[in-house]
Amino acid sequence: MKTIAVEANVKAKERLERNLENLSFYCSPGFDFGSAMRADPGGVAQRFVTSSILRGIFGSVKPGFWPSHELLREIEDDVTVLAERGRVRQIFPAWKAFEQVDRRLTKLRLKLRVGNLISRASAMLPGESALNKVVRLAIAGDIQARCLLGDMVMNTEKLDELLQADRQIVRQRCMAGPVAQWTVRIGHPMAKDFVCAAGFDPPGQDTRDFHRRILQWDRVRRHRLAKKTSSKSVTPI
């Protein structure tokens, strides 16, 4: 059993290191992969592009844009494995596990790399569209907004332009969903900036229900991780 635990830690560390290297490519839409690969043939950028092409995702989900659920889940799972070895009680919020691993494995620069990703993601979060704002105010009874909405409906060309802009923001929010939900779930210090984008209601004076939902979400993830780990630990006879 001890050998299995050691092997699990080694694999978790190796995968975590690879994934952390790739974080710099996300939420960086202006990143020039061509220049990076020419400057360092066979380097991190080249390995990232090659790996993405083999998985059939490069150019379809724009890896220079928003990270996927799968990538973020792998990072969290590996941090959990490294932080909770030999522990009976789980670490909550998960960000404490990130801090623990960062202190123990300083070369990974775990907190720095994750923090940089979340900061870039926060800067890229789309705001409210002009159309959505007008509709929201009109529903709330704002007379000026209702008049403006009426003018928009009459001007079909302008309305189409506003609808296109609104759809673009909705698409951006969908792509931002994974990193927003993950930031809230792990309890990162910037989590409050992502609550609405993650699909949660902003917590009011009583935050117990909010934290209860996060704990439930985390328990489900941990249960799946435990099943996955145990199934890999079984040695066929």
Question: What's this entry about, in short?
Answer:
This protein has 237 residues and is mostly helical.
Q: Summarize the helix and strand pattern as letters.
A: HHHHHHHHHH
Mean pLDDT: 82
Euclidean distance between termini CA atoms: 16 Å
Q: What percentage of residues falls in helices of 4 or more residues?
A: 55-70%
| Global shape | globular
**Strand percentage:** under 5%
Number of helices: 10
Number of strand segments: 0
Biggest beta sheet summary: none
Assembly of the depicted chains: single chain
- Structural class, by secondary structure, is mainly alpha
The radius of gyration over CA amounts to 22 Å
List segments where confidence is low: pLDDT < 50 over at least 5 consecutive residues: 233-237
Describe it for me?
- The radius of gyration is 22 Å and the shape is globular.
- Mean pLDDT is 82; it is low at 233-237.
- It is built from ten helices and no strands.
- The protein has a domain at 2-29 and 64-124 and 176-233.
- 67% of the residues lie in helices and 0% in strands.
- Helix 4 (69-83) packs across helix 5 (94-104).
- It is mainly alpha-helical and 237 residues long.
Tags for this model:
single chain; disordered C terminus
Sequence-ordered SSE layout with sheet pairings:
Layout: H1 2-22, H2 33-39, H3 44-54, H4 69-83, H5 94-104, H6 110-124, H7 130-139, H8 143-154, H9 156-186, H10 208-233
